[in-house]
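debug: dumping io for the single-chain case to check the tokenizer round-trip. Nothing else runs in this session.
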Amino acid sequence: MARHGLHACFTFAFALLLEAAAGVQGQTPAPMVNPKIDQQPGPFSYYSHSVDEIGAMDAPMATEITPSGSLYTGYGELVFLAGPDMTPIHPRIRTLEKGYLPIVHFSHQQYGIDYEFACFTAELGDGTLVNIAHVVEKNTNALPTRAVLTAGTRYENDTANGSGVGEHEFRRPVDDGKPGDYRQPGVRFNPAWVYSFSRDAFLRSGKVFYLFPDAPDREMLTEKQFYNIQINNTPRELDIFPTSLVGLVSYNSILAPGAERTITFLMPLVPVEEGAETARILKASYSGELNATIARWERIVGKGMQIETPEPKVNDTFKASLVYDLLARDHIGGNYIQTVNKFQYHAFWLRDASDIANMYDLTGYPNYASQDLEFFARFQQPDGLFLSQPGQYDAEGEVLWVYGQHYSMTHDLAFAQQVFPAVERAVDWLEKARAADPLHLIPSSFVHDNEYANGHITGYNLLALGGLKNAAILADAAGEQALATQYRADYREYRADFAKALARCVELDGGYIPPSLDGDCGGQDWGNLLGTYPEHIFAPNDPLITATLKQVQSKYREGLTTYGTLRYLHDYLIMKNTLTEIVRNEQQQPLKDLYAMLVHTSSTQEGFEFAIRVWGDRDFADNLPPHGWFAAEYRIVVRDMMVRSDEGQVHLLSVMSPAWMGAGKTIRVERAPTEFGEVGFTLTQPNDHSAQIALDTLWRQQPRAIWLHLPWFAEVSGVWVDGQSAAQTKGMVRIPPNAREVRIRWTRRADAPDWSYDQAVEQYKQEYRRHWDVYMHGQAGR
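debug: decoded output
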């Protein structure tokens, strides 16, 4: 878990200790939300409150679309109200342009008037970032009806938790640390601000906060007038709160039946001087900037690995996740800084950034990975340790591992030579630290994050072991054969020391790999789930891995991993298990995991971190999505289901869903990178009983074998590779690296379940309704 401040870390740590002391059983159940929210029209959205992120790749800041549909930045908030009574809107169901581009659509209905919003950030030719909110009003009544839309500003929303930050909003401004620290450009609320209007803009102390190129019917400095006297828009200071609405413009007219009206608002992310800058902004047209924004993002999304399944939710989340991680990147002073989002996690963590960079490599964006990795060297300490959070040693292994993986995927010799001196210093630190430690492991620490454990942390050692493996790969590439040999010897010795420390805990814990290695070996499951993925420290089918999966899966709720004494859901922790299950050649459990992840996303494909209670109100509070680690891990999960390499071999279609089988359905993969080169295939199904796979490979070096996994829900009566019959082995078929076509004769098993994303959503709704009935009435409904 990426935490954004020490206060938050200690507060949550204390809360976990209280929970552990009190226990969970017998406590008052978590508040729930009325399941009627799931009857709202549009795609399913798990969260009871929605937030979205719009912005531009590598920009220093972004914009939050809050639960009320307002546009929130470091400088203030542009708010929308509807109807003659100026009702706040609450658009919970939103969609993205094409399902994955950062152009957010939502609507509000009132008195027969539809208000359709489209919001996005335009990057003008001079680099200026401008939020565009385009609203189409339409009268759906049979009679003429008044349509009223009002826009206004406030500094922030009310706070409900005593944090001083608006509810469902992020803390700002913050900009006083070193590169990579939490930052939010902006300004503090100033009671001495002077508010005013010009012809087509609202200004705050001489800076344009937003523009309204469509002339409004009324302008008001304040929402209401003292004693209802005449509107006074004289420029002046106002005695208001940060939450007060000011600078309102209203569009008020009667629309004929079926008639429409369009209104556009332009909001610079950073308020600008009125004059030449605003003139350039006013020249921006909605349609022109919309098309330019779509084209810009489509070029990015389209150049990497492409995946198409018969389920749009799977495909759209794969693409949107790339967009969310790119929105989270900063490009400041020559540094590409991979943050987690531009909200509460607008900061750099070596662990998060390592997995995100690896995702770029695994899904066809090695240049982005290379740019991200350049920043890592800043966090190597003088003694060689890689560290971005005090006392948290996971970064040491993560960096060595991602460096090695980047080289393995790209074969970029210059990169290996560039980073190897840092690798050598890091391994030197590791050797000295182990020599000084009584268990010959990574030093013990008290972790106020992730594992929340005291002592030697299991995951830190698994990561360091994986890092050593990759350090040897880099030593080979750099021509340092003696060091490569030494690192492999160090690995064997380290693994033996680790296995010895682990054995005591395994005996205590019934065969499962626990989070820590001292005392009762307790803590929150986290890094202990990394025993065989991403590196085979233990063999995939080792009994320790089997027992660990079984133990952690027993704690699942709503299909997800839990966090904090089974009280909270965690949306991306489960993926450590999912990726492990895939390399174990399991099919059913990874598919269950996939659908559980997707059920717990928004209608705009956002995953969260934690803070949502099990069978609770589905509110992430201040832990705002989208979460960049979820996005990266989701893309890796789907990629590995389709194409993965392991131990010199390439695997195709490791996991397939029953929803993807049937006449006319297609599964397509293009330009999937592996360490051996690119892989693509298209699976078509001319009828319910056969499939054809056209292979498209571009090998840099041929793998030892290609294995095609056959679906667990199908009876396969024959497989032919380039016209030759192929034998089935443990549900797989071996394919020569130069094969071009595979034909399969199969039938769906009679007992095959009807699993799909839609089925998982319906199952979740029914189960949530049952929990609601118990919560409200003490018993399940009939």
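debug: round-trip ok. DSSP finds 15 helices and 36 strands in the chain.
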